[in-house]
Amino acid sequence: MVWTYLSQFWDSVANATVTSGEYTVAWFQSLGNAVAGAIGSVFDSIFHVAIDAFIIIGYIINILFIFFKGLIRPIDYFFNYLLSGMSALFAPLSYTPAESWSIPTNIIEIFNAIPFWSTFTYSLTAVILFLVGYKIFRLITKI
Q: Contact at 8 Å (CB) between 2 and 38?
């Protein structure tokens, strides 16, 4: 299809170089545009078919995943039902943390003694959130 067109086009260019003697810049530009368009059309059709194949393969994999997930769901429900029934038979465990994660009061007093500490932390948080949002925006617009 396109390869036949390219071979016919090249034959006409080769015959034109033999019969005529002078070429203008516009003739070479139109020749380059025609060749680039034909080659681009070949690659466009190849990439289009490849992308369609990848979409179909992804769709089939997604359907198989949903199917197998549906097959496993009754087994998952049964075991969750058994586990919740067994947990009702035993007393709940009481967890005591090994260490306290609260900040000691003397350290909090140091930070409260710094003038405008709360303003600084709010500003720093706003700057960090802005930078993260900007990077995410740049990453999304890069695609």
A: yes
Quick one: residue 90, left, alpha or beta (phi over 0 = left, psi -120 to 50 = alpha)? Answer: beta
Q: How many whole angstroms separate alpha carbon 54 and alpha carbon 133?
A: 32
Side-chain half-sphere CA neighbours of 90 within 13 A: 7
By CB neighbour count within 10 A (0-12 exposed, 13-18 middle, 19+ buried), where does 35 fall?
A: middle
Look up the pTM and report it.
0.36
**Residue at token pair 């994660």:** 101
At 21-75, the pLDDT tens digits run: 566 667 677 777 777 777 777 788 788 888 999 999 999 999 999 999 998 888 8
d(CA 96, CA 124): 35
Res 131: pLDDT: 95
Rounded CA gap, 94 and 48, in Å? 60
